[in-house]
């Protein structure tokens, strides 16, 4: 069909959640769920189907936005608006989120570079990572600015290891691209779009 380049949108989750440091594109693949297995299988399919041309696998960080209702910040905001307290287990789990607007911008940026070779995979995300407790505190603080004052955070001490940050230097350097939105800006936007 005269398609010259293929972009497969994959996920950082294929690196697993027990990382000691941000995962770069050569990090070990850890297939810990049907979702991650499906994402990696699609990468293998791309490699086999499109080796005649130019393709890449974009391993997106966890995206957040007003409609990503299954994500941690959205769930926290829903509880806050309902007047519920937040029960946080552990609290030290590390999350790195990518605003959906930045994800779209990065993909458009990649498509504009049609005159250079692509690597087989790129991580796209931010250099930010925050603990679950910090994210909960940010959500509570943002909601308080709009009059939602009743929520308290209850911390339950547990040793839960989650690190989902990726090393995004390769994409940033090759395409002169950086995420525009930090987590606080994304959280403010999510709250404003969903509750104001």
Question: What integer value in Å does the Rg equal?
Answer: 18 Å
Global shape: globular
Low-confidence stretches: none
Helical content class: 25-40%
What is the strand tally?
9
Major β-sheet profile: 3 strands, parallel
Structural class, by secondary structure, is: alpha/beta
Number of helices: 6
Strand order of the largest sheet: 1-2-7
**What proportion of the residues form beta strands (DSSP E)?**
15-25%
Average pLDDT figure: 95
Order of helices and strands: EHEEHEEEHEEHEHH
Task: Please give a structural write-up.
The protein is an alpha/beta fold and 196 residues long. 37% of the residues lie in helices and 18% in strands. The chain contains six helices and nine strands; from the N terminus they run βαββαβββαββαβαα. It has helices at 34-49, 72-81, 100-112, 132-144, 169-175, 183-195; strands spanning 5-11, 54-60, 62-64, 86-89, 94-95, 97-99, 121-124, 130-131, 153-156. Strands 1-2-7 form a three-stranded parallel β-sheet, sandwiched between helices. A two-stranded parallel ribbon has the order 3-6. It is globular. The mean pLDDT is 95.
Structure keywords:
alpha/beta; single chain; two-stranded parallel sheet; globular; 6 helices
């Amino acid at each position: 069909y005269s398609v010259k380049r293929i972009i497969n949108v994959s996920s950082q989750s294929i690196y697993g959640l027990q990382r000691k440091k941000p995962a770069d594109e050569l990090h070990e693949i850890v297939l810990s769920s049907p979702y991650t297995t499906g994402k990696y299988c699609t990468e293998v399919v791309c490699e086999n189907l499109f080796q005649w041309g130019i393709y890449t696998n974009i391993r997106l960080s966890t995206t957040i936005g007003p409609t990503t209702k299954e994500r941690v910040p959205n769930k926290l905001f829903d509880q806050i608006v309902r007047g519920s307290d937040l029960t946080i287990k552990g609290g030290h789990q590390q999350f790195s989120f990518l605003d959906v607007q930045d994800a779209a911008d990065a993909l458009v940026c990649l498509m504009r570079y049609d005159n250079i070779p692509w690597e087989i995979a790129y991580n796209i995300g931010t250099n930010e990572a925050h603990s679950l407790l910090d994210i909960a505190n940010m959500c509570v603080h943002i909601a308080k600015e709009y009059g939602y004052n009743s929520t308290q955070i209850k911390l339950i001490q547990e040793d839960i290891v989650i690190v989902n940050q990726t090393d995004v230097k390769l994409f940033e350097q090759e395409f002169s691209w950086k995420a525009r939105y930090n987590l606080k800006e994304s959280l403010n936007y999510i709250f404003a779009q969903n509750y104001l």
